[in-house]
Amino acid sequence: MLSFDPNPIVIGKTLVTKVAGTSTVVIEQGAISTVKAFSNGKQVFAKQEDFCKKISETNGENCPLQPGNFNSTSTSVPPSSPNDPKGQTLTFDVIFSVINADKTVIGCMEGPFSMTFPQ
């Protein structure tokens, strides 16, 4: 499960992101999460983070994480850019992945999400 509040995401406003699910493998130290966003088939955004560091900061857990249920909530403020479209809500195709240190993909979610760009 992946959810955003607010939805659609509003640039420059506090965003709460919740991720929950069940892992069937150990998540090792060195695991990374990646987010890629596409518009009309063209990649417009990419971000990679140290998954273990992020989970430690948000939930106080440390890798290796044993198989089982997980539930993580984080807050952030999506930054604006001078090139942002003004006064529009756009929909992007997004791929979110978690990749273990040995390069094994251990989770992947794909789907559309929308962002509002204020005036």
UniProtKB/TrEMBL annotation:
Coiled-coil zones: none
Region (Disordered) location: 58-85
Residue ranges of domain MD-2-related lipid-recognition in the record: 3-114
SUPFAM superfamilies: E set domains (SSF81296)
InterPro entries per UniProt: Ig_E-set, ML_dom
UniProt cross-references to Pfam families, sorted A to Z: E1_DerP2_DerF2
Protein name (database record): Phosphatidylglycerol/phosphatidylinositol transfer protein
Organism this protein belongs to: Glomus cerebriforme
